[in-house]
Amino acid sequence: xxxxxxxxxxxxxxxxxxxxxxxxxxxxxxxxxxxxxxxxxxxxxxxxxxxxxxxxxxxxxxxxxxxxxxxxxxxxxxxxxxxxxxxxxxxxxxxxxxxxxxxxxxxxxxxxxxxxxxxxxxxxxxxxxxxxxxxxxxxxxxxxxxxxxxxxxxxxxxxxxxxxxxxxxxxxxxxxxxxxxxxxxxxxxxxxxxxxxxxxxxxxxxxxxxxxxxxxxxxxxxxxxxxxxxxxxxxxxxxxxxxxxxxxxxxxxxxxxxxxxxxxxxxxxxxxxxxxxxxxxxxxxxxxxxxxxxxxxxxxxxxxxxxxxxxxxxxxxxxxxxxxxxxxxxxxxxxxxxxxxxxxxxxxxxxxxxxxxxxxxxxxxxxxxxxxxxxxxxxxxxxxxxxxxxxxxxxxxxxxxxx
Length: 403
Ligand code: NAP
Ligand code: MG
Known about the structure:
The chain has 3 domains: 1-114 and 285-403, Isopropylmalate Dehydrogenase; 119-136 and 182-284, no CATH class; 143-180, no CATH class. The chain has helices spanning 18-32, 47-52, 56-68, 81-86, 96-104, 185-202, 218-240, 250-259, 270-284, 311-318, 328-345, 348-366, 372-375, 388-402, and strands spanning 5-6, 11-15, 36-37, 40-44, 70-73, 107-112, 129-133, 143-147, 151-158, 164-172, 176-180, 205-210, 245-249, 264-268, 290-295, 301-305, 369-370, 384-385. It is α/β, with parallel strands linked by helices. Magnesium ion is lined by residues 274, 278.
């Protein structure tokens, strides 16, 4: 092995919890440190240290991503009542992902890792489908009301200057339900720009869908904002990259996606994105093969796996039992981040290394060597099932052959 690849600008490294924390250290030890002189600014987002710092470490990590541009994050525990007891927490801290997303004002893009021996449930899908989910507003920030008796429901807006507009929603003759929701032009614009930038990054078409035929003001505003930003800021860039942007109704998008071969970014409103990302993940086979990247409108990137800390495996590990936890999505979080760092800093070797590590990881599975979760999905009966750590050594073997 020749000299290690050098990095110019630090990568923001955010460690996490449980089984993924164990995998995190092993990936670095086996697959990265031998080849790259890793230059990271380390933030421990493990629950214990978040509690010690009153969650300041999460905020600091997000600020560091703003400073350097790229971060890589391990899965973390979002505390609930059980965790407060388990870790004797001062407080039920908020989800670190939520905190970071709010600071970066980012959009989350989720993409499956495709291997040729695990067939998606949709036979025609041979390229990944990336779902971009708007992460602000709509039904996730609503006001609801249970109507118990006859009465009139109205939508009233009082402007700061004192103008009042009033519309009747419904004259109720008996009981029913009511909901009010909103979104913000600024948030929709950020979402649109993040999607246009990401599609350019991947050199894939961008689809955006909503229901503007029914929602003639609310959803139509989304459609108009996307179109306006596209025409003003992205049209010529898309033409140069030979990719397309188009808008279509959400039900039309669903039927076209199912008949497609994949290979596009599909931007969805908040609720559609929630539903469609689970549909796409499941149809492609496994949560353990789903990568996730948060992209801010300013072009900051945070890479992670879509799955959680795999608590059940961790408890088995603590009991001394052997585990077979799939590290693919976490490896791809690292390769995504290293590749982006390499692109931004003009370090070709780093980009090539990350590419090869991805190829070696895919090759390992395609040669029928994999963790238990995938073994159930593969048709072949010559599968070699390996434990958590040996899977990494198998990848290293193939990586060394490529380097
Ligand atoms: P999870 O960690 O994603 O695991 C759920 C189940 O999915 C596992 O028990 C396992 O199934 C399977 N699985 C997920 N990832 C796998 C992998 N890499 N390899 C093999 N199997 C895998 O979700 P959870 O158990 O609901 O949540 C655990 C903790 O993670 C929670 O504290 C939650 O707050 C946190 N979480 C964090 C993030 C994040 O940081 N981005 C996201 C989601 C959840 P089997 O048990 O059947 O083997
Ligand atoms: Mg969901």
